[in-house]
Write a structure and sequence with these properties.
Helices cover 36% and strands 15% of the residues. It folds into two domains: 9-47, no CATH class; 52-238, Rossmann fold (3-Layer(aba) Sandwich). The chain has a six-stranded mixed beta sheet, with helices on both faces. By secondary structure, it is α/β, with parallel strands linked by helices. Residues 1-12, 14-40, 42-46 and 248-253 have low confidence and may be disordered.
C-alpha cells in the first residue's frame, strides 16, 4: 500500500480559504463588515448642507471728483450726479424680489460713499472689503502696461483672484444674494473670469457709472453672466461714463 497516497493533504484555492474563514467567524458570532466606507460616506453626506445658488450683483461706483488732490481713500468723493446714481441703484436693489444678504464695498471714497447711500435705501450696512479696491491688472493693451510696474500688475491680479475665489462660488446651504460695490477695472476683470474669458481682455468691456452686473453661480460651480452695464434704473440725463472736467459741477459727461 502506498501510504503517502492515502494521507495527501487536500489543496484549496485562496478564495476557498477566505470563504471558510468567513464562515468560521460568523459561526463564532463575529460580524463581517464588507464595506465600512459606505455608512461613513452616507453619514457625511447627511451632515453636509447642500450647496445653493449664489447670485452676485456688482455695482460700479457713481461719478466722482477725479480732480480732488487728496488721496482716493479720503478724497475724490461723489459728485451730486454720482450721489443720485447711487441712490437710484439702492432703490432698485431694495425692490428686488429676493433679499440681498450681504453688501461689500471697496474702501476707496467713491465706492464707499456709493455703498453707504445705496445701503441706506436698502436698510443695510456695508462691509468694507480691501480687496475690492481699484487696481490695474495685466491687459493686452501695451499702452496701459507701459504705465504700470510688473509688481503692481501682478499684485492686482492676485488681489482680484482672491476676490474671485472668495465670492464666485456656490453658497453653503440655501440660495444667497450678495452685492459688491466696486470699480470699473475690478468688475470688468471679475465679469471676464466668470464666463471663461482671458482676464487680460478686461479692457474690451466698458460700462457707465452706477451700472450693474450680475453673475449667477450654480451648485455645480458653473457660472452665467446675466447682466453687464445695466442702467435700467437711470434715466438718460443721469448716465455718465467719465468724470467731469475740473471746472464742472458734475453734470452729464
Amino acid at each position: 500500500m502506498n501510504v503517502s497516497a492515502t494521507t495527501r493533504t487536500p489543496a484549496f484555492s485562496a478564495a476557498a480559504v477566505l470563504v471558510m474563514l468567513s464562515a468560521l467567524a460568523s459561526s463564532a458570532g463575529a460580524a463581517v463588515v464588507t464595506s465600512p466606507a459606505k455608512p461613513a460616506s452616507a453619514a457625511a453626506s447627511a451632515a453636509t448642507p447642500q450647496a445653493g445658488t449664489r447670485t452676485i450683483y456688482m455695482l460700479r461706483h457713481g461719478q466722482y471728483d477725479q480732480h480732488d488732490p487728496r488721496d482716493e481713500a479720503v478724497g475724490k468723493g461723489l459728485t451730486e450726479l454720482g450721489r443720485e446714481q447711487a441712490r437710484r441703484a439702492g432703490v432698485r436693489f431694495a425692490a428686488l424680489p429676493v433679499k440681498v444678504n450681504l453688501l461689500y464695498a471697496s474702501p476707496l471714497t467713491r465706492a464707499r460713499e456709493t455703498a453707504e447711500i445705496a445701503a441706506a435705501v436698502m436698510g443695510m450696512k456695508p462691509v468694507t472689503e480691501p480687496d475690492l479696491a481699484e487696481c490695474t491688472p495685466p491687459t493686452i493693451r501695451s499702452d496701459i502696461m507701459a504705465g504700470e510696474t510688473p509688481g503692481a500688475l501682478d499684485s492686482c491680479r492676485l488681489q482680484l483672484e482672491r476676490d474671485f475665489e472668495r465670492f464666485f462660488r456656490p453658497t453653503l446651504g440655501p440660495d444667497s444674494t450678495i452685492l459688491l460695490v466696486a470699480h470699473g477695472n475690478v468688475i470688468r476683470y471679475l465679469a471676464s473670469r466668470s464666463i471663461g474669458l482671458d482676464p487680460k481682455l478686461w479692457l474690451n468691456l466698458s460700462f457707465p457709472h452706477g451700472s450693474i452686473a450680475m453673475v449667477r453661480v450654480r451648485p455645480d460651480r458653473s457660472m452665467q453672466l446675466h447682466e453687464l452695464g445695466d442702467i435700467g434704473h437711470l434715466p438718460p440725463e443721469l448716465v455718465s461714463y467719465v468724470n467731469p472736467p475740473a471746472d464742472s459741477t458734475g453734470t452729464r459727461h
